[in-house]
């Protein structure tokens, strides 16, 4: 095989892997710390092709193992900004 053939094959493999990951990914989160020192996350999730902003807080009312450790909430836009956007489905 030539170097060009190997390069083309490697690119196709990388693109295929990226598509597989993107097909499974629902969103992304960033860890933050409040002024009072509490950890939380902000980010977005895509549901039915619509990107929704979320915020995630530790469940301070957890009493047993069947209760969740973290709670996810839809994040309200600041100053009436529209933050929901349509997302293209992967090919």
Summary of the model, kept short:
With 91 residues, the chain is of the alpha+beta class.
Structure explained in plain terms:
- This protein is α+β, with helices and mostly antiparallel strands.
- It has a domain of 60 residues.
- Helices cover 24% and strands 35% of the residues.
- The chain is built from 1 helix and 5 strands, in the order H-E-E-E-E-E.
- Strands 1, 2, 3, 4 and 5 form a 5-stranded antiparallel sheet that branches.
- A hairpin with a 2-residue loop joins strand 2 and strand 3.
- It is elongated.
- The two termini are 29 Å apart.
- About 5% of the residues have low confidence.
Q: What structural keywords apply?
A:
91 residues, alpha+beta, five-stranded antiparallel β-sheet, 1 helix, elongated
Order of helices and strands: HEEEEE
Which class of secondary structure composition applies to the elements? alpha+beta
Please report the distance between the alpha carbons of the first and last residues. 29 Å
The major β-sheet equals:
5 strands, antiparallel
Strand share of the residues? 35-45%
How many extended strands?
5
Helix content: 10-25%
Low-pLDDT runs of 5+ residues are 83-87
Radius of gyration: 19 Å
What's the tally of helices?
Answer: 1
Globally, the shape reads elongated
Give the topology, please.
Blueprint: H1 3-24, E1 27-33, E2 39-47, E3 50-58, E4 70-74, E5 85-86
Antiparallel strand pairs: 1-2, 2-3, 3-4, 3-5
